[in-house]
Structures are given as structure tokens and as C-alpha cells.
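Before a colleague's protein record goes any further, I have to sign it off. What it holds is a sequence and that sequence's fold in C-alpha cell form. My question to you is simply how this chain folds and whether the C-alpha cells agree. Thanks in advance; the entry in question is below:
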Amino acid sequence: MAQTGKKGPIQNLNDKLRSLFGPGSPGGPPESGQKKEGLPPKTHFTLWYFLFVFLLLLVLQQYYFSVQRETISYSTFKQSLIAGNVIKVAIAPETITGTMKSEGKAPGREFITVRVDDPGLVKDLEEHKIDYSGSYESKWLGNILSWIVPIAIFFLIWRFAMSRMGGPGAGVMSFGKSKAKLSAQDEIKVTFEDVAGIDEARQELQEVVEFLKSPEKFQRLGGRIPKGVLLVGSPGTGKTLLAKAVAGEAKVPFFSISGSEFVEMFVGVGASRVRDLFSQATTRAPCIIFIDELDALGKARGVNVFGGNDEREQTLNQLLVEMDGFQSNKGVIIMAATNRPEILDPALLRPGRFDRQVLIDRPDINGREAILKIHSRDVPLSPEVDLRKVAALTPGFVGADLANLINEAALLAARKNKETVGPDELDESIDRIVGGLEKKNRVMNPREKEIVAFHESGHAIVAESVTYADPVHKVSIISRGIAALGYTQQRPTEDRYLMTRPELLDRLAVLLGGRVAEELIFGESSTGSQNDLQRATDIARSMITEYGMSDRLGLATYERPHSPLFPPEGFNQTRAYSEAKSAQIDEEIARLLDEARTRVRKILMERRKVLDELARLLSVNEIVQGEELRKMLSESPVPGTDAV
């Protein structure tokens, strides 16, 4: 007979049991992946089928095949017996069954009643000449069910608990299986076109893409591709995105897993998962294995003074063994990402394992502009928006920060019911990311508002009066974040990687501008300059102890940088110099700060008119743009304010 698309009774039963017990259960229906392609499905009679049929037969025996008897009371039975209506009875230890006469020519009615202690029952039966007999109730079925049913219930509970412990859709035996997520070639839509601001890293990884596409090009000359590529960079710089772009460009399968997913509470599970991951990757070569947050798995062994995790170290050892045994011609590339390379085990970084390290640095102004263009492709921008200016206002921002900036600007424009995102929304989103949420409802008394206005005016005027400070973009006395009562935003004209002594002195002057302005106007200082003083002290200390910018102390450095993984020598030793030298360092720091304070006081006294006017304007408008400040300063120029 030809097989049709309609399911038969057995197939329906199979589907019901599969939904009840799940695929791949012990004794249950097999998983779909176990069927051989090209062969018709087979019927599997397992323990669950026999149990189901057994229960079905019990139900049929109870309700359909057994004799239907009428249950009556014992008194009714005795009355019918005396009246001669009982034809025959069968006496059991606990029940009495029999046949009772019916009206007319209808067959006799079967009845059952509970037996009571009646010594005269047999005598009554003999007097009325009733056919009676004894019967024995077999209790083997009930005894068996009393054992089987509890065991079956406990087994189902145990199986349910074990399936949940093994993860979604997994059993207890799947602990050692890899939890890596596999993305097929067509599922990865990210390419190098979606990555910007890290051109050097992209060029470095282009070789990996070419090897995955055409490995024979390198093998022909005896070359081999590095087994492991380690992506190192700050959080949000695009390490995971770049790894996906490599897989998207090469059109190969992509295994992605976090380093923390290898380690479990059971000994040996992490090592088993590492073996399983590499086994799967070998069968799907060429492919890419990407391990995110490698530092969760690859911390240096045996240096934790507070104790370690043996299971994590065993997992790391297994990873080292697998990578050491990996042959370069298998077409499997191991990529990993971390933002803490200093704590990784040295064995991971040796040649033959993660021997190629790609730095994903913070983007420069050109990179930030390119990243903004990518993230704003689906965002309607107004013609007035200049992404170059936005990139200049965001030094130090990484790709994740810039994506958040565009998103915040789009949300702000949507709240205002605008059709496009304009410069105001982008500027406000920058302030929100850097300074925090704007708090327009924070009530300050007039005295505090005046202090904040003069404080920020001091910062802004000094920044525009010295030579090497970045130009002021905006001055505001609107509260933001937790403690910021106002801010002076500067816009760098270019990205800087080195700073000279005059530039650092100008930064000290700008930081002290708010504190000196308070002292000059009110004759006293407030707590609002706490963060400024802390940053100024850090700059001064670095100039003295790290950069060798003190004529008195010479070129020696007095700070020993150390890895956060390894404690300083002596563990409790905090300084590597004498107490006398420490006193000289403190004197030099105080001298730098005092000189900067005197210089700033001179600048503000010469610009006193502009200081009063700017503070008054801030008290009224709360925000003053940099162009307006520069116009005010140009009307009262004062020479001789360069750094010394």
C-alpha cells in the first residue's frame, strides 16, 4: 500500500509520547537527528509504548471488557434472598457477587455487595436452594501497581530535574557538551563594511580571511597561518564585531562562546567542553572559533595568593593542549577577545597558540567620523549636522559610545516630534553621556547659583586665555548626573598622544580656574572644586614622579608600574624611595600647584570685567556658547598670559 501524508494511530501515539517525554529520552522516541536520510521512518517499540499499552488494557478491562454489576446494599441482598429473587451467588472474602431475577423475560441482573459478618448466610442459601460457591480475589495486579507506579513517578521527577540541570533541551549526560553557539555561513551578515575606525586591525585580519578562502595560496610556499588571533582592546572598541566581520567576509561557520561558559561546578566538565568544541570545529573546517572574555578562562596559573579554582586551571590546561595539537592546515582559526591581556597565562601567548595579537585601539577623529556615518545610516540627519564636528567633541569615545550617542540623539528628536535629528540633539546627547542626565528641577538658592556661575566662568576664561588649552565649546550651570552642578565643555582641535610641560601647566591652570575665581570674588572657597583639585594633584604628581619634569629631582622616576595580577615587591611596600625623597616630592607638587594658582589669579584679575559679565550671563541664560565667550574676550584683550 502506498504511504500517504496522513498519520496513522501509531504515528500519532509516537508524537504524543515525544511531546510528553521529549526527544532522546531513555527508552523514548529517538531524536530526529538520529534518523538516516533517504530512509522511511521506522516504528520503535520501546518501554514507553509497552507501559502505555499496559495502562490502556487496564482501562479497557475495567470499563469495557469486565462484567457490569449493580452495587447494592447487604440488606437489599438479604431481602431479595428471602424473597427468592436471587438465582446464584459467589462468596468472596470481602464481596458477594451473583445474579438476580429480572422482570419479565429479561436476563438476570448481575449484582455485587460488600460482605458482612453473617453466620446464618449459608443456612439461608440452603433453605432457599440458591446455587452458591466460593471465590478467591487475586491481588497480584494491585501489588504490582503499588510498586511500579511510585517508582515511575519518582523516575519522571528525576528525569525532569536532570534535564533542567543540563540546560535547555539537554540531559544530565550533556554536561560535557560544548555550549558554543554555531552560526552558519549565511547567518552572519556583518562584513568589513560595517567596521570603521580600526583600519590597521582590519588589514591585519584580512590575511586570515584570505587563508580561510584560499588556504592553498599560503600552503604552496610552505607558509602557515597563525593558529590563534587575540583581539586586545578597551571595552566597546568592537572586538566581537570584528570577529564576526572576519567570519562574514570568509563565509565560514562561526562558533562563538564566552570564556565563563567552559567552567562549571563539576570537575572535568570544562575540559570536556573544550574537547567537544574543537571536535565539532574540526568536522566543520574551515571555520572560526571565537572565545569572548578569554581572561575568565585564561588567567595566569598559580599566582593567586587567595587560592585558585582547580577546575578553571584544568580547563585552561585542556585548551592549551588542544591548541598545541591543532595543525595549521586544518582550516580552523581560533580568535579570542580580552580587555585585560596583562593577566593572561604566558603559555597562551607563546608562538604556536595566540601568537598574533591585534590591538583594537580607541578611534581617532577620522575613525570616529567613519563610525558615526555607519551608525547614522538608518537615522535621518538634518542638513545642518556636521559629523566631523561631532567627532571632534567626542575624544576618547569608542564604537559603543558613538552608537549610543546616535541612539540617544534619535530618542531626543522623537520626544520633540521632529522629523530629523539636528545638531542640538547630538550636542545634548553628548552632554548626557559625558555628564549624566540633566536635572532642570534641582532647586539651588541664589547664593549657590552665583558661586557655580563664577566657578565655571573661571574655568572658561582661563581656558581661553592660556596658549595650549582646548577651545571652549560650551559653559553651563545646569546640574547633571549625581554631583555636577555645572560644567565647561572644551572641544579639542586634534587628537593628542604626547604632551609637553607647558601644555600640562596650562591644564593645571584651567583646573584651578574655578577655585581661584571663588576666592577672588567671595574671599572663600566651596566644596565644588574637590574634583578639580584631585585631578590637578594627579597631574602635578605625575609630572614629578613619572615624567621627570622637576629640575630639583632630576630625571629619576619614583613610581613603579606593576601588573594588577602581581603584587608589588614585598607586598606591603608602597614606596621605593626614602622619606627624605618623599618630602621633596610633596614640596615639588605643592610648588607646582602654588605657581599655577598665582598665574590663574593674575589672569582672572586682568579679566575681572569679563568674569563678572560671563557669570551674570550664565545666571540668566544658564548656557553660554564658546563663540559668545570669545567675542566677549576679544573686546577686552590682555597680553602676557602665556605659560611659563
